[in-house]
Amino acid sequence: MGARLRNIQARAAEHGRLRTGYTQGNRPMRSATWVVTSHSEEHVRRAAELWGGEPEQWAPLNSTISQWRVITKASSIEALITPGDPLNQYNEMWSKGGCQRRCDGETELLTRQPCICLARFGEDWHQQRKGTVCSTTSRLNVMLPDLSGMGMWRAETHSFYAAQEWGGMVDMVLAGTDGKGFIPVNLRIEPRQRVANGETKKFPVVVVELRNITPRQALAGPMTAATALAPARQARAAIEAPKGPDWIADARGCLTSDDVRDLWMDARQAGAVHPKGTDPLSKQLMEIAAEKDAENARPAGEPEPDEDGAYEAEFVDDGEREPAGWPAVARPGSK
To answer: 177 partner at 20 to 30 Å CA-CA among 103, 290, 304, 331?
Structure first.
């Protein structure tokens, strides 16, 4: 690998945003499905193919720069948590002039004062009217494996309750992977409601949940990129894949060396052994055949008739000759 600058942090480009709302004119609207926005028309059109909706040009509030967006029909989309720590969380207050407050819950970082909202309103400050206190802001950077480009997409929520769940989920995953490898997840918009002061409020919460892997897999350490990209398909393939014969176990279950020889013929047709019998499996089968002969050895080596008094005739097809080196064993009726 080539050299990297040591005084800057390498990171993937941001392709766009995953939103839970949109603007209708100047009015903000909540959405029960994902809204995908990007400067790239290609990304947005691909998202529409995957998750439905009609791509359109759009300009964010207080911006003159046109972007593309699609209000999809999907409340859940597949994503990958990438190596590193993908989550940033702050309590923030914004105005037209930019960010006025950014707090980590204890210290307001722009002025280095103690948390202003907590000092004014106490532990339940987040229940105050919007605009009078900071918004709990969580930003999760993920990769969307089915969209073009190797960059990141930012999922952002201002939900106080989602912030608790996102932090807990990501921290558990990081504890298992040490920030290495990819983790497949679903980003799902879940409708919820809360009753307070006699009023019922309905609101969407973005849930981050493991996709097609178990907590055991997620916490066992970094998984391969192939497993993270297609965990369901690979898991099904591992379960459904036909298992090949256990030639050694089958040979040990044979009654005679002739049965072992027939088994070797089957193995040769299946491509499991070398036609000349020079491979390790053939040699193991030869040893088992010799053991069967030793077990079935008869005094004087004379053949015995069957229950009708007849001796079994044996024919060997020239096209099915045994490999060189196969144990030479006297056969009934041979001279």
So the answer is: 103
Rg (alpha carbons) of the chain, rounded to whole number = 34
Give the tokens for residue 29.
Answer: 């609207």
Q: What is the dihedral of CA 103, 109, 113, 116, to 10 degrees?
A: -20
Reference 56, options 75, 46, 45, 34; nearest CA is: 45
Are 204 and 30 in contact by the 8 Å Cβ rule? The answer is yes
Q: 325 near 289, Cβ under 8 Å? A: no
Q: Tokens 């499996």, residue?
A: 281
**What is the per-residue pLDDT across 248-299, written as a single tens digit (0 to 9) for each?**
888 877 778 888 888 888 888 888 888 888 888 888 888 988 888 887 775 5
Return d(Cα 296, Cα 233) in angstroms, integer: 49
Where are the extended beta strands (E) located within 2-118?
Answer: 14-24, 27-38, 56-58, 67-71, 76-81, 87-95, 98-103, 107-108, 113-114
DSSP for 276-314? TS-SHHHHHHHHHHHHHHHHT--GGG-----TTSPPPP-
Q: Which residue has the tokens 């802001």?
A: 137
Q: What is the DSSP letter of 133?
A: B
CB-CB neighbours of 310 under 10 Å: 8
Model confidence band, residue 4 (pLDDT cutoffs 50, 70, 90): low
Q: Say which amino acid occupies 321.
A: R
Instruction: Give, as one character, the DSSP assignment of residue 320.
Output: G
- pLDDT 10s digits, 205-257: 888 888 888 888 888 888 777 778 765 454 444 444 445 678 888 887 777 88
Residue of 209, 217, 167 whose CA lies nearest to 186: 209
Q: Is the pLDDT of residue 66 over 90?
A: no
